[in-house]
Amino acid sequence: MPIAQNPLSVEVTLPREDVALLTVEGYLDVDTATEFQHHLANQLHHGRRHFLLDLSAVPFMDSSGMNIILRVYQEARELPGSVHIISPTSAVRRILDLTGVSITVPVSESVEEALERVDGIRETAPQEEPGA
Predict the structure, then answer these.
(1) What contacts 39, CB < 8 A, 6 or more positions away?
(2) DSSP conformation class of 22
(3) Can you tell me the distance from the alpha carbon of 37 to that of 57, in angstroms, rounded to the nearest whole number?
(4) CB contact at 8 A, 120 and 30
(5) Which residues neighbour 62 within 8 Å (Cβ) at sequence distance 6 or greater?
(6) pTM for the complete prediction?
(7) Is the pLDDT of residue 128 over 70?
(8) Helix (H) and strand (E) counts for the chain?
């Protein structure tokens, strides 16, 4: 089995019980997108509803990476939850802006800013009825 030419590193931390911070390093493309998707699926499986995607160390992202971000965005909205992109590199930000992904998926400059947005979503989300 050939080794990926541009390996992807994904570190997952949990700033809060239902929030997963995925710090991504490397090329997010057709060769590495499946690995990224597995990390996201694992966090969904473990009950995470909010996803913070730190893309500050991703020099390149193609449509495979964007499709995964949009897919997890759709899945998270149904929970309800959210997806936030944090500090994309200028090349990745350009792709996000040109494709309109940055209009759909919020882009924050820091983890703290993204967590504030998560808190804002929680405050406006309808509360479940006790015993429902």
Answers:
(1) 10, 12, 22
(2) E
(3) 17
(4) no
(5) 28, 29, 30
(6) 0.87
(7) no
(8) 5, 5
Write out the two tokens for 83. 């997806």
Q: How far apart are CA 10 and CA 48, in angstroms?
A: 16
| Tokens standing for residue 105 | 């998926």
**SS3 string of the chain?**
CCCCCCCCEEEEEEEECCEEEEEEECCECCCCHHHHHHHHHHHHHCCCCEEEEEEEECCCECHHHHHHHHHHHHHHHHCCCEEEEECCCHHHHHHHHHHCHHHHCCEECCHHHHHHHHHHHHHHCCCCCCCC
Instruction: Give the model confidence (pLDDT) of 27-39 as tens digits.
Output: 999 999 999 999 9
